[in-house]
Each structure stands twice: as C-alpha cells, then as structure tokens.
Amino acid sequence: MRPPFDPTLYLVTDTALAGERGVPDVVRAAVAGGVTAVQVRDKTASRRELYALTLAVRAVLPPGVALFVNDAVDVALLAGADGVHVGQDDLPAAEVRALIGPDRLLGLSAGSDDELAVALALPPGTVDVVGIGPVWATPTKPDAGTGLGPAGTAALAAKAAAGGLRSVAIGGISVERAAEVTGVDGVCVVSAICAAPDPAAAARALRGVR
Ligand code: TZP
Ligand code: MG
C-alpha cells in the first residue's frame, strides 16, 4: 500500500535558505504551521550528506506527513522515505517505480504538454503526482524558465486530472500569490517557507489560502 500523501502544502527544502537554523528545524516549524508533505532536495550535498539530512528530517516528521527525496532513489530507500521525486532528466519513472516497488510514492516533474504526456503514457500506478511548473520564474531555480502562469498551470493540471494523476504546482509561489494557483491538488514552495523568518507562520499563512 502507498503511504498516505496529502499534497495540499508541500515543502521542498533548501539547505542554503534554511541557513543556520538547519533544515530539520525549519521542517519541524513548517509542519507545525500546516505543511502536509516534505521533499528533501539538496543539489550540492554528497550522497552521504543527503542520506544524513533525510534521516534527520524523517526524525522530525509526524506520521501522515509524506517524506520524498529529490532524485536519489538509493537515499530514499535507505532512509526509509515515503517516496522519490524525479525530473525528466533523472532516471526514467518506470525504472524508478521498478526500483522502489509498489509501496512508495513517485513524483515526476512536468513543465510542458510533452513532459506531462510522458507521465500520462506510463501504466496506471507508476506516478502518484506530477509537479507542474514553474508557475512563475523563480530565483530559487533560475534555469527553470519563464513560467507557465496560472492559466498554463491550470491547463496542465486539468490534463493530469483527466488522466487520473494528482498534481502540485511549483515555482514562485508566495503567500501573496498562492491563491492565484488553481486546478492543482496542492502547492509546492521552497523560499516562501525556507527563507521566511518564521517558517511556522509562513506555513500557517499559506494554509490560510490553500
Ligand atoms: N522546480 C521548479 S521551480 C523550483 C523547482 C525546484 C523552485 C521553486 O522555488 P520557490 O522558491 O518556491 O520559487
Ligand atoms: Mg531531479
């Protein structure tokens, strides 16, 4: 059975933005404020550092808040994460599903119709959630592109839903803009929580509009 996964407010971690507070403390506060799912993402960490970070985040998560690891299937399995999130340049989703088995969650990024078609062409149950974005251009991932906008995001989300896939939107989502994002099952944020002086308050504010 897949672990429970509520995509409503999905935090993607950023070690640099968390700063001296450390990612686990930011995650703990964010979950207290209402974050429903967490992805450990650190493109600069070694495999060993990512493993240690994932264990530390896992230790602060209550049951029911799903934990994903970005890219690193080995780390996700070893750390007992609930799932993995991959992009379209990472290992192919079907192969990742074969590695993780039926009892973990799999997220796949989809930033265009063509990329969404990849997710929709997979056998049912391969992918649990598509990450649509960026909604807006974002300094957190400068190479992500100019942004689909709320309308483009909603159009992809509608296609995902028609194909039986849940969706989350990512990229440039702030407390102020979160209500503009429609059609998705949840929103993913990095800087809106990790760079906030009070991550719990930021999460509460986001839950106020989602
Ligand atoms: N993928 C697309 S945009 C993005 C990722 C990982 C970064 C989103 O960061 P922020 O700070 O929420 O705009
Ligand atoms: Mg990736």
From TrEMBL:
Question: Which residues of the sequence carry a binding annotation for 4-amino-2-methyl-5-(diphosphooxymethyl)pyrimidine?
Answer: 39-43, 70, 109, 141
Write out the residues that bind 2-[(2R,5Z)-2-carboxy-4-methylthiazol-5(2H)-ylidene]ethyl phosphate.
138-140, 172, 190-191
EC number from the UniProt entry: 2.5.1.3
Q: Note how many cofactor molecules are bound and how.
A: Binds 1 Mg(2+) ion per subunit.
Instruction: Show the CDD domains listed in the entry.
Output: TMP_TenI (cd00564)
Q: Which GO terms describe its biological process?
A: thiamine biosynthetic process; thiamine diphosphate biosynthetic process
Record flagged with keyword Metal-binding: yes
Q: Its pathway?
A: Cofactor biosynthesis; thiamine diphosphate biosynthesis; thiamine phosphate from 4-amino-2-methyl-5-diphosphomethylpyrimidine and 4-methyl-5-(2-phosphoethyl)-thiazole: step 1/1
Q: Does the keyword Transferase apply?
A: yes
Q: Which coenzymes or cofactors are required?
A: Mg(2+)
GO molecular function terms here? magnesium ion binding; thiamine-phosphate diphosphorylase activity
User: What is this protein's record name?
Assistant: Thiamine-phosphate synthase
Q: Which organism is it from?
A: Geodermatophilus obscurus
Tell me the lineage of the source organism.
Bacteria, Bacillati, Actinomycetota, Actinomycetes, Geodermatophilales
State the gene name recorded for this protein. thiE
